[in-house]
Amino acid sequence: MSKNNSDLINIKPLSGFRVIELGQLLAGPFSGALLAYFGAEVIKIEPPGKGDPLRNWRVLDDGTSLWWRSLGRNKKCITINLKKQKGRDLVRQLIDGADVLIENFRPGKMESWSLGPEHFKKSNPNLIYTRISGYGQTGPYSHKPGFASVCEGISGFRYVNGIPGEAPIRPNLSIGDSIAGLHAAFGIVLSLLSRKTGGTGQVVDVALYEAMFNLLEGVIPEYDGAGVIREPSGTTVTGIAPTNIYRCVDKKYIVIGGNGDSIFKRLMIAAGRPDMAEDERFSNNSGRVKYEEEIDDALSCWCKKQISTKVLETLDLYDVPSGPIYNAEDMIHDPHFIERGLFESVKVKNKLLKIPAMAPKLSKTPGSTSWAGPEIGSFNKEIFENILGMDASNQKTLKNEGVI
């Protein structure tokens, strides 16, 4: 293979694309992190001083969030004060030279700064202008603040989670933000593909509640076609049995998915209940759903008498889908996670920190982490000099004025 061909293979799929990230906290920055991981040059603009609030969230190490080191990976962080006209002028120049803009302010905010999509139609007609908000850029709710927790609720996602008769349960993650960020990254890549085939720039409008709405599977057609509202189902899944979480004698929980007809037979034989494996009542899913409680009682009784590892070993022998409920410590020591390269070590102030690798895995042009989330304004000099052509004297003046 020639040297040139070899070099091409090492180029990441988004190499050569420039992204300006104006978002803060989660949805916009997660989208930016995905793009940066796969090669885009992501210039993250933060307010001077404390920067993105995420830098100070949750567990801190030497004053900086450990979470930030993951979400800020591969980004070129600069500081510009958007409250000042000179700051907005600098941002406009950067956007004019970019392929993609990501912003997750409340609808109307960018327009109030004269930085809305219309302001770039002539100066940068190929711009992919990506907007992430709670409820989208249009509609009667568009003006509302869109926190992930609220948007997960109105999307219908929260309704189906939890114990019947009790308050809906939220995952202990900002899943609405992350899912919206995924949708934004997908929309950006689709728009870049469209641009390659002769299209121009466009607006990508991502709403948190719509991103979560996208996950509802058959909830809407089941209601419209049969008048059925899917209710919360605890640790099970409505209409599919058996699939549940079971507690073992060592007080650890495992997941068992035995909802295929042949799988169910193997499961019950493994659990010492060959009588149930051959019971005609349980021969298909509809019968198992009808007698779900009886099946779950049998499996619970079996698991309660054994340690979790023994149960899982037995189920593996019978080729039954099953697995442990992992926490962070379990994952970081698991040989499969390690073999699959799910952790990357990055240098943070002369220490190594493990952060998660990002999916999907690509065989020829994989993504990777080049550096952890950097310090505030650490790329100011590079970006202001190389892209905006600003000399040291101008930079000093703007810094003194509170612009950068």
Explain what the structure shows:
It is a single chain. The protein has 18 helices and 13 strands. By secondary structure, the protein is α/β, with parallel strands linked by helices. The protein folds into two domains: 9-215 and 343-400, Crotonobetainyl-coa:carnitine coa-transferase, domain 1 (Rossmann fold), CATH 3.40.50; 243-247 and 253-324, formyl-coa transferase, domain 3 (2-Layer Sandwich), CATH 3.30.1540. The protein has a six-stranded parallel β-sheet with strand order 5-2-1-6-7-8, with helices on both faces. Strand 3 and strand 4 form a beta hairpin. Helix 2 (27-37) packs across helix 7 (175-196). The longest helix has 22 residues, at 175-196. It is elongated. Mean pLDDT is 95; it is low at 1-8.
Q: Structural class of the secondary structure composition?
A: alpha/beta
Termini separation comes to: 47 Å
Unreliable spans: 1-8
Tell me which CATH architecture of the largest domain applies here. Answer: 3-Layer(aba) Sandwich
Strand residues, percent: 5-15%
Number of helices: 18
Give the total of domains: 2
Per DSSP E runs of 2 or more residues, the count of β-strands stands at 13
The CATH topology of the largest domain is what? Rossmann fold
**Biggest β-sheet: strands ordered side by side in the sheet:** 5-2-1-6-7-8
Largest sheet: 6 strands, parallel
Tertiary shape: elongated
Mean pLDDT over the residues: 95
Rg (C-alpha, Å): 25 Å
In the CATH scheme, the class of the largest domain would be Alpha Beta
Share of residues in helices: 25-40%
Under CATH, the homologous superfamily of the largest domain reads: Crotonobetainyl-coa:carnitine coa-transferase, domain 1
